[in-house]
Amino acid sequence: MSDSREVLLDAAWHLVVESFGFEPTTTEPGQRVGAKILEQLKAADIAARASMTTGAFYNRWPNREAFLADFLDYALSVERSPTFDAITAAYGQIEDLPLLEQIERLAVANFEAMAVNPSFAIQTHLWSLMRSRPDIKDRMMTMYRDFRDPMVPIYEAILAGLGRDLREPLTMPQLSNIMVGLAEGMTMQIVVGGESGATRDTYVMALQALLPVLTRASGDPRTIQEVVAEAAYPAT
């Protein structure tokens, strides 16, 4: 990809980011028309944001469909998310802490990375369009795998450091799916806001409640179902 194409894609990305409210908008109050996703991304706006002409835009892509194909690859790249670095950096500082404190530190690092980065919100919005856009569906599934699979060795290292492993019948890819789903759901609540919006404390509490059920210390043979049954129906 040439530098000019990268600049134009980056300009389109920042127009989307602004329209979601993650960056100050360059439009006047009252002129915003909602999230600039796909059909609302105009060649003239993108070129202007990149300090180029509309002709320069069409020199790179023969039509909007060709541009959108490149933009989807750009927007749905796992590189747009800082989560890997945030979790890895946090884990390097907490290895000797008690379990609940380790979970809290990791949760806070992940939550704060999500709160300041628009990727989850934008990608989840695109996910909502995939029923009518097979091209989006294919890219979303690729992005999801690209995000989920590299997290597996990270979770393995974290659990090994905690002296814990998974309770049966959970697998590590399933744990990664659960963590990604929780992160995406919390992020959408952050974006929506309001009194029911997610907070850092609710995210921490959710992880602190989940991980002792989903994982176990050495010598604890109980399955997830047994732990849940004991909590729901304690022996009297």
Question: How are the secondary structure elements laid out?
Answer:
Elements: H1 3-19, H2 43-49, H3 54-60, H4 64-75, H5 83-91, H6 99-116, H7 119-127, H8 134-162, E1 164-166, H9 172-192, H10 200-214, E2 215-217, H11 224-232
Antiparallel strand pairs: 1-2
Helix pairs in contact: 1-2, 2-3, 5-6, 5-8, 6-9, 6-10, 8-9
Q: What does the model show?
A:
This protein has 236 residues and is mainly alpha-helical. It has two domains: 3-75, no CATH class; 78-232, Tetracycline Repressor, domain 2. Helices cover 65% and strands 3% of the residues. The protein is built from eleven helices and two strands, in the order ααααααααβααβα. The protein has helices spanning 3-19, 43-49, 54-60, 64-75, 83-91, 99-116, 119-127, 134-162, 172-192, 200-214, 224-232, and strands at residues 164-166, 215-217. Strands 1-2 form a two-stranded antiparallel ribbon. Helix 2 packs across helix 3, helix 5 (83-91) packs antiparallel against helix 6 (99-116) and helix 6 crosses helix 9 (172-192). The longest helix has 29 residues, at 134-162. The radius of gyration is 21 Å and the shape is elongated. The N and C termini lie far apart (67 Å).
Attribute tags:
236 residues, mainly alpha, Tetracycline Repressor, domain 2, 2 domains, 11 helices, 2 strands
